[in-house]
Design a protein that fits this description.
alpha/beta; two-stranded antiparallel ribbon; 6 helices; 11 strands
């Protein structure tokens, strides 16, 4: 399985970087792309990261799962992008795994994909989400969606993705590694 992760200016540092780190430790194939054609992205903490590809450079239909980090990028760029809507709709309608943290669940929920499902998101970010049941848990896995409430839950979010893709034993092994227990 291979995943696609979309970054834009203002993404929450820990939500993006911790998720990438944990998935790579689990040996999960992940392609990180920028939303716009520029290769450099400025994080919410004003760090500058350079990526090899933009979303326009890849065929998103060849990926098995999608990850959307949160932060101001969600409101300032991702929520305004027709291309992001197109990608989210493709993954959701094809029942592929879609993972979103903090504000990013609104990119899924604004289309009604959480109908009859539980989800979580950063407080207040559910205003555009309808047809779902917002719960206050740190990480929620409902059907083909994994959502997380905030940056605090970034490692748990990533480990749930690992568990879903590679199994619980692999997630436990990676958790022990990052806790310094292995």
């Amino acid at each position: 399985m291979k995943g696609l992760m979309i970054f834009a200016d203002g993404f929450e540092d820990v939500e993006g970087i911790a998720t990438v780190d944990i998935l790579k430790r689990a040996q999960i194939k992940l392609t990180c792309v920028t939303l716009k054609n520029k290769k450099e992205v400025t994080t919410s903490a004003q760090n500058h990261l350079v990526f090899e590809q933009s979303l326009a450079d890849v065929d998103y239909k060849t990926f098995d799962f999608l990850i959307l980090p949160g932060g101001p990028a969600v409101f300032n760029e991702l929520d305004k992008s027709k291309k992001v809507d197109e990608v989210v709709n493709y993954f959701c309608t094809n029942q592929k795994l879609v993972c979103a943290i903090c504000a990013a669940p609104l990119l899924i929920g604004k289309h009604g994909y959480f109908e009859n499902l539980d989800y979580t998101c950063f407080p207040g970010c559910n205003e555009k989400i309808y047809l779902g049941n917002k719960v206050d848990d740190g990480v929620v896995h409902s059907k083909n969606f994994i959502t997380a409430k905030s940056m605090y839950y970034a490692c748990d979010f990533a480990l749930e993705i690992v568990s879903t893709i590679k199994g619980n034993d692999k997630a436990i092994s990676v958790a022990k590694q990052i806790k310094g227990m292995e």
